[in-house]
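Could you join me in thinking about how sequence relates to backbone shape in a protein? We need material for that, and I hope you will provide a protein of your own picking. Label the sequence line and the structure token line clearly, so we can match residues to local backbone shapes. Would you write everything just below, so we can both look at the same thing?
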Amino acid sequence: LKLQFLYFIAEDAYTSIYMSPKPLRPEWFGYIVLFAGVMLHLCLGSVYCWGNLTTYVTSYLREKTPDLEYSDTLWVYIVGPSSQAIMVFLGGYLQLHLGTRLTAFLGSAMCVSGVFLSSAVVSHGNVAMVFSYGVIFGLGMGTAYTCPIAAAITYLPKYKGMINGIVVMGFGLGAFVMNFIITGYANPHNCKPQCPGSDFTYPKFHCPGWPDTHYNASSDIDCDNKYFPSDSSIAQSVPNLLRLLAIIYACVMLPASLLIVGRCQPLLCFPSWGSSKEDDLEDDDSEEDIKEDLAEGKQAKFESTHDVPTRDVVKTRLGWLLWIGFLLTGTGGSFVVAQYKTYGQKYSWSSDNIEARISSIMSVGNAIGRLVHGTLADKFGFVGVLGVSAALAATFQLTLALTGHHEYMFGTWCFIIAFLYGGNFALYPTGTLQVFGKKYFPPNYGFFFSGFGIGGVIIGVLNKSLVNSIGFSGMTIIIGGITAMGVVNTYFVSRILTKTNYSIIQNDVQDA
């Protein structure tokens, strides 16, 4: 097995220099690509740790900007997925020219650089964090995001939804793993944040490492935002914590990216090889299969003979409906993932360990949701699954604020919302592949993902403008309403992807 593996590497290098691509690896190598993709996404998914990490980072930044609030540092999280959305689109074109391996390596290097740079510039304020941890890390995420999916599908083309689910499951699990590292390093004594300006002392609970003038605030003192003293050991651990994360990312992402290579891809893939045998591999759906699916009420699937480039996708009604859909159905879950801790820590049951556990539970829900939704999409079609998922998500988002007084109910709601939120990232890639083909999947999915990125900016502006007047409860009503609009949008998508409208969508794509 070792000799065969070395042979693949040697032939890979030879082909990249002397000849055009050909199938270089057997089907079983796809499982290695899947594993590498999960490990890569495990680190990319640590972006969901922001709901936990923001308490420490915001507390540290308040040393120079005492009036800084969570709504200000939320922009670090918002800018990350927005930058990711830009590069998912542009990174798709990089894959067509550089191949998945080099593109994944480039994205991984950008992520590592962004987090390491943030450890050096975090002392300069929130804007520096937005640029380093938000923009640079986000651009890296977008560059590497679709590489494992695009590569793995060349080995196992019959299981698009499952492959999407498995790979992005790693993204969902990222926070589960990293939250324990973050909380264990920054707050090993499970100290509670306190209301700013409080001078109360409570001898029953004194956190080690805090200056003598600071003690933990009583749990019955209520305020909208609680922080750690900026001169405490907890807040001061932030630069070293970010450096630790950068080292972990480098050790995991860079080696994993070297294994993310398509079945026909050589070490380097030049533009002149754009349409290689990899695009001509036997696919799983013939024209007759498509018609049978339509007769059963499933969505139309445009496979190898119906690969639609992005320049044509943006001219279709369906393309823009999916773009709008990603904006509507993904925004609400993103808000909850980023803000759950800010809301939960105001209640007496809250502690840093409890909030970290809730974050990890949400991460597991996010991961399971991606796998389950992707598998269901293979069986029932992505549109129906998306409609049901969005309807449930709207219901739980609208009622989330009612659960805050009960720890287990709040945690359950957060888990379900994360489960349904994660489904978006399995359903939209699967839909992109099934409807518009796999040849232009990376840039096509990048276009749809940009809708999600813009949705994040919109919810950030709304949160900054309205949260002080309507509170978290009011914001949950807004995000629930936005998600409910996504259900309506899904209905229009389903109308296009039915048997009666098959000729319409086909002509729509061909006319584009």
In short: The chain has a mean pLDDT of 77. The chain is about 70% helix and 0% strand.
